[in-house]
Amino acid sequence: MSRSIAVALALLLLAAACTSSDTGEVGDFSEILAGEVAITPDASGTTATLTVATNIDAVCAVAYGPTEALGSLSTDQDMGGGAHDDHQAIMTGLDPETTYFYRLQGVGIDGRLYSSDLMTFTTPSSTEAGLPGLNVAVDGVVVDSSSQFSDAFAASGAIDGDLGTEWSSGGDGDDAYLVVDLGRPVEIVGVGFRTREMSDGTAIANSFTVTIDGDTYGPFRAGPGLAIGEVSAVGQLVRFDVDTSTGGNTGAVEVEIYQAGG
């Protein structure tokens, strides 16, 4: 599901919840909550992943912001876009070392609406990121890829610096790859890979390799979140290959290339 469709869906869901609240038809989100709500901030402090399971199939959204007025929305990154019971949403545009308020909203397949109490989480300090250098992938261009699921999941989404977008291959599994042209030779001290994943457990890259101007490094461990591999090379063309995976529409939320001295 594209980011624009996801936001539109969240707006409709929240609008419906607000309308129904006047008639007492909104249930407490705890009625459908299965387990704990988990929020995992990125090391940079600028994004956070919310993971929640429900005991019914539902479409869920999270409203969040730096005050109780909230102001931002996020829904599942699952491209299926339908109701399910394992939900993951990425909250972007955050500031490091800041407390955020959030509220969960959901609608079941029977049309009943649910809303949680207002809750909070805090992002880490930017000094905790521990990255080996400046990410210069955002200044590059994707010049080749194994495939892409659709324009909404284009390979360029893996180097735009936005964890709300991602590249998905068209079912390439362990054969998925993309090539980034940095436009100039760069002294590279590390690479990063943030795998995409589906709620059914597919599309997760467990390891990856990189090839810099013909020399291959790795495999490096991957998995949910940011995986960093240390390299020492000077190059312009950087190819990321999925080495092992759970199969399916593998790809990356982001790939990162760290320049020395950044």
Architecture overview:
This protein has 262 residues and is mostly beta strands. It folds into two domains: 3-128, Immunoglobulins (Immunoglobulin-like), CATH 2.60.40; 134-259, Galactose-binding domain-like (Jelly Rolls), CATH 2.60.120. The protein contains one helix and 16 strands. The protein has one helix spanning 3-21; strands at 26-28, 38-41, 48-65, 72-75, 84-91, 99-108, 113-115, 119-122, 134-135, 141-145, 167-168, 177-195, 205-212, 215-221, 227-245, 251-259. The strands form two sheets. Strands 1, 2, 3, 4, 5, 6, 7 and 8 form an eight-stranded mixed β-sheet that branches. Strands 9, 10, 11, 12, 13, 14, 15 and 16 form an eight-stranded antiparallel β-sheet that branches. A hairpin with a 2-residue loop joins β13 and β14. It starts with a helix and ends with a strand.
Spell out the blueprint of helices and strands.
Blueprint: H1 3-21, E1 26-28, E2 38-41, E3 48-65, E4 72-75, E5 84-91, E6 99-108, E7 113-115, E8 119-122, E9 134-135, E10 141-145, E11 167-168, E12 177-195, E13 205-212, E14 215-221, E15 227-245, E16 251-259
Parallel strand pairs: 1-7
Antiparallel strand pairs: 2-3, 3-4, 3-5, 3-6, 6-7, 6-8, 9-16, 10-12, 11-16, 12-15, 12-16, 13-14, 13-15
